[in-house]
Amino acid sequence: MSCVPRLPVALAAALTIAAGLGVRLLWDGPVPKYAGDALYTVLIYALIVLIRPGIRPWAAALVAAAVSWAIEFAQLTEIPSVLRPVLGSTFNPPDLFWYAAGAGAAFAAHALWLRRPPAHP
Questions:
Q1: Are 103 and 50 spatial neighbours (Cβ–Cβ below 8 Å)?
Q2: Name one Pfam family in it (predicted).
Q3: Mean confidence (pLDDT) of the chain
Q4: Long-range contacts of 8-16 (CB under 8 A, 24+ apart)
Q5: Of 23, 56, 101, 110, which has the highest C-beta tally within 10 A?
Q6: Which domain holds residue 37?
Q7: Could you read off the pLDDT of 51-81 as tens digits, one per residue?
Q8: 90 CB neighbour count, 10 Å cutoff
Q9: What would the pLDDT profile of 87-96 be if each residue is shown by its tens digit?
């Protein structure tokens, strides 16, 4: 299994943050909320790949979804106020689906990247 170079992953993470902020600026209602959930998991996925560039897409997807789900279930307990802007504060079951959707989208993009033909100079 080949590694994904860190620069494209860092750019993908930056674009994910920009997309999340853009969605919130452009729409109201459930669209930005659930898109934000999916993008949150995509960002976690990108951070995992930055840390472990050789990780297999399925493993990165499972870890990203698990981290997102763990954070969501932690909202059933008292989240310290300083962490609420990042971790949220209210458990919402539909979020679990959107985290899985984000992990699936990131998995697909990662797998496609690894299957692309090698560039020749």
A1: no
A2: DUF2809
A3: 92
A4: 8/113, 9/46, 9/49, 9/50, 9/53, 10/46, 10/50, 12/46, 12/109, 13/43, 13/46, 13/47, 13/50, 16/42, 16/43, 16/46
A5: 110
A6: 6-115
A7: 999 999 999 999 999 999 999 999 999 888 8
A8: 10
A9: 888 899 999 9
CA dist., res. 81 & res. 86, Å (int): 10
Mean pLDDT of 39-44: 96
- HSE at residue 45, side-chain half, CA atoms within 13 A, is 30
Q: What are phi and psi of 55, to 5 degrees?
A: -65, 145
* 121 in any annotated domain: no
Tokens of 66: 């698990």
Residue holding tokens 């789900």? Answer: 69
